[in-house]
Design goal:
Length: 564
RNA sequence: GCGCCGGUAGUCUAGUUGGUUAGGAUGUCGGCCUCCCAAGCCGAUGACGCGGGUUCGAAUCCCGCCCGGCGCACCA
């Protein structure tokens, strides 16, 4: 089976705009100040997104005894981004030419012109270098202004901003930090560790260049969970070599040694079952047996050295922990569950892989990042990020806020460790549409082979309207059936009596509606209607009084169309 | 942000030595016809990305901007 996408980015973005799934915000102001990186979900898209969220809730929250959902504000106090490190370390130094107003990255400009490395230099140092070496604007020779910090975060203020003050609000660039600052409250509700806190919501990043349609946006939807798990305080999630090479990690290990007199280096848990981090309670047999496709860090490095394509390994989720490919069981639990989630959305197994992030892609506090990548027509790209963030976030928020976010058990201090899966809804939507998209073959139009759970409409009711004498009777009966289905099934059901029947089937196929119910002349003699399956165009006759039951069974997968 | 390429109805497109009312197809809407897959016939609807300049006259030439694609850079 090939997992080549059925639609290309170009095709799919056009098709989605045409069918009302998603289109650029502010199209009618083209050229008058509309901006890239913002999209509006249309009538089909808002239903699709809702269905993705519902299915995710079902998978990750409803079926879990230990996961709790919150819904935080998107405007957040600035101080939490100081605590998280976002404002402290994630900015680009920009300089603007006073004369021609061109914008440059100060560090890159210096490196290019003077051919020296300026990594880790402060703003003051960079400004000093520019002054000393009399660096001018490469384009017009004009004088360069002061260096500005460009943070990629949208900032605003509540109330009037006095001169010299920093804005006090930040539009969150991720939902995660709102979870960390709610930790204490949810912990008192959850009662004990381990537990997960989930959140679905919008995040905002002022990307320099939004690209590839829905792939990189300035406003986007995330579904995130932070799992809080206690880990033995003397057991560090890094190797001894890592610790020796990194001053921040060395500091951490020194403080543990000072407090407990010993430390154990355990970057990968393997078969060690001593701590909760390697005992995920809901990692059941089904999940243990899920086959994961993993591209390890070593394989990526070796392949690039040898100038060949990197090859993924495939193994059971449980074995990936035992063989020390994944850091611990909680990580394996997340990856297995994500695989099942994405395949239930219609994304083929071999279009999904997990890539271990390279050292330069990983922050210092991370003890293992595995991106779930989907194969798009433009390459393998991240759709879900999985990070073992250790106790970094809670430690930082504890320091800055002064709140008690640790547990004291038998004289030892446990700061919960965090495993974080972070889903990008738009990236998932783009991937699943690319794989559901069909063109040519047996019909002369584009259509969507969406899984029934995702389809915006589960069925359409269509009066055939062929013989003239029956027309009004047919229409009346069709409307009656439509009302009954709506009352009895809770689904969105379409109704259409315009144009000819072929056109109406085509319109439904285009929206991905899996079943079409047609009222014809025979309906009046035996109380049956035809039901047509989108993927095969096949039809069966079923009694009207069983229609809601049959439809529900078909959508829920309790009965197959062939068995009707 | 830099470099290259592009932008005509919802969609695909004709028109670019400057010169009619910007043409076609398809969709959409209305009607006719037809017992089941964008069928056929009639009618309606709808476009030069935005702004400025050159010119008697600009979709066409020039400048700026916006949007999109690719490459570079960025991507907590």
């Amino acid at each position: 089976m090939s997992s080549k996408t059925y639609g290309t980015l170009e095709n799919v973005m056009r098709f989605m705009a045409e069918t009302g799934i998603v289109f650029p915000t502010g199209e009618i102001y083209a050229g008058k100040g509309d901006i890239a990186g913002f999209y509006t979900f249309g009538p089909m898209g808002s239903r699709l997104v809702e269905n993705i969220k519902q299915l995710w809730r079902d998978f990750f929250i409803r079926r879990s005894k230990l996961t709790f959902e919150i819904d935080g504000s998107t405007l957040t106090p600035r101080i939490i981004w100081i605590a998280s490190g976002h404002l402290e370390s994630f900015w680009d130094p920009l300089v603007i030419c006073k004369k021609c107003r061109k914008i440059y990255r100060a560090d890159q400009l210096i490196e290019e012109i003077l051919n020296i490395s300026v990594e880790g230099k402060s703003i003051e140092e960079l400004e000093e270098i520019i002054k000393k070496n009399e660096i001018k604007c490469p384009s017009c020779g004009g004088e360069l202004g002061e260096i500005q910090k460009y943070t990629l975060m949208f900032q605003t203020n509540s109330g009037p901003l006095r001169e010299g003050e920093e804005p006090n609000l930040v539009l969150r660039p991720e939902t995660a930090q709102v979870i960390f600052i709610s930790y204490k409250r949810v912990k008192s509700i959850a009662g004990k560790h381990p537990f997960g806190v989930a959140q679905i919501g919008r995040s905002y990043r002022d990307e320099i260049s939004p690209r590839r349609g829905l792939f990189r946006l300035r406003e986007f939807n995330q579904m995130e969970i932070e799992f809080f798990v206690l880990r033995e305080p003397t057991c560090v999630p890094f190797s001894e070599t890592d610790v020796n090479e990194n001053p921040k990690k060395r500091e951490l290990v020194e403080s543990i040694k000072k407090q407990y007199g010993k430390v154990r280096y355990a970057p990968k848990c393997g078969t060690c079952k001593k701590c909760p981090l390697n005992n995920a309670p809901e990692f059941d047999t089904t999940l243990r047996n899920v086959q994961l496709r993993i591209l390890t860090r070593n394989e990526q490095i070796n392949a690039s050295k040898e100038g060949r394509e990197p090859k993924e390994m495939v193994m059971r989720a449980e074995d990936a922990v035992k063989n020390k490919i994944l850091p611990n069981e909680w990580m394996a639990y997340c990856l297995a569950k994500e695989t099942l989630f994405l395949t239930s959305l219609g994304i083929p197994k071999d279009a999904i892989r997990f890539r271990e992030m390279l050292p330069e892609e990983t922050p210092h506090y991370s003890a293992g990042n595995f991106d779930l990548e989907i194969r798009y027509d433009f390459g393998w790209k991240e759709a879900i990020g999985n990070a073992y963030r250790t106790d970094y976030d809670l430690t930082r928020h504890m320091k800055v806020s002064g709140a008690k976010l640790y547990e004291k058990l038998e004289g030892k201090i446990y700061i919960p460790h965090v495993i974080e899966p972070s889903f990008g809804i738009e990236r998932i939507l783009l991937g699943l549409i690319m794989y559901a998209y069909r063109k040519g073959e047996d019909r002369g139009y584009e259509w969507l082979a969406l899984p029934p759970v995702l389809a915006p409409f589960k069925a359409a009711v269509l009066p055939l309207l062929m013989p003239r004498d029956f027309r009004e009777k047919e229409r009346e009966l069709a409307l009656k059936i439509w009302h009954e289905l709506i009352d009895k099934t809770k689904y969105f059901i379409a109704y259409d009596d315009s144009g000819n029947i072929g056109r109406r089937y085509a319109r439904q196929d285009q929206k991905g509606t899996p079943y079409c119910i047609t009222i014809d002349a025979q309906t009046f003699s035996d109380n049956t209607v035809t039901i047509r399956f989108r993927d095969t165009k096949e039809q069966k006759r079923v009694p009207i009084d069983q229609l809601d039951k049959i439809l529900t069974d078909l959508i829920e997968g309790k009965r197959s169309f062939n068995d009707l």
